[in-house]
């Protein structure tokens, strides 16, 4: 059952089609049947995988309870004609700099960024669907912990000649 008022359609004195919930009294209008809107439940926050390694398995000296890509969200569409994609990482507790930990961000399984910052901007990303993942690595480039993979879709304007 809808809680919205009826939608009316009418034509004004200039010939423009108007939609609204209250047509003028002196105008004939038609009631439009509007189907219910789509609703989606937000995806549950993914849990992190722990103790995976790109080089060799290694136990993390401090455990991170949260490691995830917070932006872009999984399955998000991004419009950027220049191909810029802003990445934000959620991590808790803070990155252990005393142990030499860094964040490695991979785009389509290729390293795109290695730093201690929880945010970065990737440049000149090609249009299409891509995957992102963040890993915590130690000073020897061992992966201590990995986030779930996030997928996003980049839309860029293209010129057809």
Structural descriptors:
mainly beta; three-stranded antiparallel beta sheet; 161 residues; 0% helix; single chain; Immunoglobulin-like
The N- to C-terminal Cα distance equals 50 Å
Classified in CATH, the superfamily of the largest domain is Immunoglobulins
Query: If helices are DSSP runs of H or I spanning 4 or more residues, what is the number of helices?
Result: 0
Q: Bin the strand percentage.
A: 35-45%
Helix content: under 10%
What's the order of the H and E elements? EEEEEEEEEEEEE
- Helix vs. strand class: mainly beta
Give the overall silhouette. elongated
Low-pLDDT parts are 46-61
CATH hierarchy class name of the largest domain: Mainly Beta
Question: CATH topology of the largest domain, anyone?
Answer: Immunoglobulin-like
Radius of gyration: 24 Å
Number of domains: 2
Q: What is the makeup of the main sheet?
A: 7 strands, mixed
Number of strands: 13
Mean pLDDT over all positions:
82
Just name the CATH architecture of the largest domain: Sandwich
Question: What's the short story on this structure?
Answer:
This protein has 161 residues and is mainly beta. 0% of the residues lie in helices and 42% in strands. The protein has 2 domains: 1-38, no CATH class; 49-155, Immunoglobulin-like (Sandwich).
Describe the structure.
This protein has no helices and 13 strands. Residues 46-61 have low confidence and may be disordered. The termini are far apart. The strands form 3 sheets. Strands 4, 6, 8, 9, 11, 12 and 13 form a 7-stranded mixed β-sheet that branches. A 3-stranded antiparallel β-sheet has the order 2-1-3, with no helix packed on it. Strands 5-7-10 form a 3-stranded antiparallel β-sheet, with no helix packed on it. The protein is 0% helix and 42% strand. The chain folds into 2 domains: 1-38, no CATH class; 49-155, Immunoglobulin-like (Sandwich), CATH 2.60.40.10. By secondary structure, it is mainly β.
